[in-house]
Write a structure and sequence with these properties.
The complex is a heterodimer of chains A (385) and B (136). With 385 residues, chain A is an alpha/beta fold. Chain A is built from 13 helices and 11 strands. Classes of the chains: A alpha/beta (385), B mainly beta (136). The structure holds zinc ion. Chain B: InterPro entries: ChsH2_C, ChsH2_Znr, NA-bd_OB-fold, Thioester_dehydratase-like.
Chain lengths: 385, 136
Amino acid sequence: MSLRNAACIVGAFEHPTRLAPDMTTPQLHAECAAGALADAGLSLTDVDGYFCATDAPGFGPISMIDYLGLDIRHTDSTEMGGCTYIQHVAHAAQAIAMGKCSVALITLAGRPRSEAVQRFRPGAPESAFEQWVGLTNHTSYGMCAARHMHEFGTTSEQLAWIKVAASHHAQHNPHAMLPKVVTVEDVVTSPMIADPLHRLDCCVTTDGGGALVVVSPEIARTLNRPVISLLGAGEATKGPSGGLGLDLTVSAAAKSGPRAFAEAGVTPSDIKYASIYDSFTITVLMQLEDLGFCAKGEGGKFVADGNLISGTGKLPFNTDGGGLCNNHPMFRGGITKVIEAVRQLRGEAAPAVQVPNCDLAVATGIGGSLGARHGAATIILERQS
Amino acid sequence: MSVRKLPAPQPNPETQAFWDGLDAGVLRIKTCVDCQQTHYYPRHICPHCGSADTRWLDSAGTGEIYSLSVMRRGEGAPFAVAYVTLDEGPSVLTNLVAENLDSLAIGQRVRLMPQSSDADHAGDGPALPFFTAIGD
Ligand SMILES: [Zn+2]
């Protein structure tokens, strides 16, 4: 059984805040839920399936379902780090296809700028061998970038083009945290954080959140909104295989991407717009290679000279400014990747960055740290004419 | 520059022998009796074949840098995080000790150089498996 056309995204909402000291995280979840349901023309009473990850406040979805006052018959708190919400779209489609629910609500919210957020989970079997090392996201992604440079000759200037492209898009987003256009020079002369990644190779840290509404095709046709269908989905995890399979130049997207494209029956060259999880510039470069937009090792050449900038480049990406310049709520950029893909497919992106006739998009992401062990999720979305 | 605190490991039944070995200056990895392959970090079940017949193996403690990143910000910076691929096969996540961190490079030969963790911040806790460039 295929997920092709099994479900549609009819509601998407990105919370406008990037700093929320006077709000609570459940309140942010609720405002995101309300926003996405209003976008769909639905209400909380229509929801019969609820999806959140384990960062949601309280005891899994139990606390949030009660807080939101939902009456649901299907719940899923699948956890795969920041790409979880891309995966949730596919899992919602699975549940809908099996008749387990018909209106699925997915929410994410968090306030890492306003309160301390627990980043490490106690009890992981690898903790004793890794936590003392100082393996932050910065050093983990730094080692990926260093190895990619070593094997393929990728340069800091090539990585910088990814930030430059994101900043060109962010200037048109009134909510973007970093709306200023930057140059390659700005990126490579910004302070080094973890070699070879500079400050401007890193994403923003933001409070905020987002929500999505996924429904059956039958319900989608009754709503007065453009219908965005799920064509294909893939997920994967990757580990170092006991240390014998360590390869920091390939992400789990090398498996999730082809799975999604195969199910959708399309190829990367068919894609008009790409939402690519951008926790760091190297994250984008590796996913572009792993999804097949270019050959492994060719990512540096692919992103150079503005090739990701909407209107001039071959592959417009992250036209909201992405995690690099716009928003990375709760360190979890998966949901904003889906939201901007929906905007593009509906023709509702900022006019300056809207891709003409955008009918096919990919949203892909990495969960956990790109380094040794992580997950990836990819979905292909199509606007129904 | 702030001093970096290295939290003392909390050994458990799966890992006690590893930490005991390191205190004696030996890096112990696991080898599998059934599939003959090694692994790191050490665990009860072989991650390659699922066998529970895994044994401790004393590594020579030498290898080469697979990748590294020098952390420039925050507590204890700068310090070098690296993956070292041991001559026995497995890659080990570690820190590198060097007079000049900028002298370190991918492909460089390294050897084990255990460093004490902080027991009650006294710096005399159980040893951690750091590496240093051969020749330094
Ligand atoms: Zn085995």
